[in-house]
Amino acid sequence: MTATIRETAATAAGARALSAARAAISTVTDPEIPVLTLDDLGVIRRVEVAADGAIEVDITPTYSGCPAMAAMALDLRAALAGAGFADARIRTVLVPAWTTDWMSAEGRRKLAQYGIAPPAAKASRRALFGAEDPLACPRCGSSRTSKIGEFGSTACKALWRCETCLEPFDAFKCI
Amino acid sequence: MSEPRFILALRLADNALVLGHRLSEWSGRAPTLEEDIALSNLALDLIGQARMLYVHAGELEGAGRGEDDFAYLRDDRDYRNVLLVEQPNGDFAATMVRHLIYAAHAHPFMQALMRSTDGTLAAIAAKAEKEMAYHLRHASEWVIRLGDGTQESRRRAQAALDDLMPYADELFATDAGDLALIAAGIAPDPADVRPAFDRTLDHVLAEATLAAPRRGHGQSGGRDGIHSEHLSRLLAEMQSLHRAHPGATW
To answer: A6-98 belongs to which CATH class?
Structure first.
């Protein structure tokens, strides 16, 4: 979870509600990468108890066309309803634009363990036609790897291959 | 300023939707599995951008129209996309050359749009800019490989370039509404985008050993709703379900 996330509740009852909502939200995972929670991914931008007592959650899309966003909003709504917040409001915000820098260290560790090479620690903006640094293979750790395709099984991933263990692997794109 | 701003959002959305739909026509029939996935991803990015832009256009218009109204319930004359994006996919070289031309413009255009005084356009541009960098790299790599490839791939890439370059100029066209938006800091000045576009094409075509077609009279009209027959056919397919079953959801 990054430091930029806003969580506010004005009253003691509000604070209790907020912490219960937070706990419910922390159980929601990415529908396409089930080892990552939405917190790990960095898409939860704000959790607040509104004046009318409803929980408000701001999420931000990873990619403009990410089909998982609708599922994430549904899953959030279901998790909050399960925790007694039937009238939660889930809002999509575009500013600031999501970056892989917001992925937690824990998220990066879980990704690698799951077999997906995590994004580089700092979203270094590649020169448009520059060479790309090799990624470490999430299976054997070798850095003798090469990219097969700029686009992988989901919008956020590219397809790579390890020249040492010869296994293909997904890599989280760095944006 | 609301009318020109609505038209700007609509034009950008229509460009993204029409090209996104074109690319989706490759799904399941691209030359390789990796490329099939790549083309579907490119389509998804563009359709995602279109959705955000339609929502914004609807807010600017203030008539209660949403993304589906714009996508499914307008005829070709109401579409404001440039002619480039409605051109048929042709062979794989034509699809990649069309995408190179589009992305070589869209990437610097979106970078410039990030400074728009319209906060929503700037926010959409901040997402789109990152995506278009990937699109540009992907299309460039393919055009280089095809141009500097076999005799056959080179012939097809050059033919695609000769066919499609006349559509490039429309990407930089302006009308009175655009000029007002540029003056207000809402839209980027195409003159500021052109040098980056030219540099990219010079670089890629040199690497691809392809000859840049001579600059001649450009094809235009799409921005004002004057389209080729290709768009009508595209819309007929894209809108058929919604027109047969109005309001259908799934």
So the answer is: alpha beta
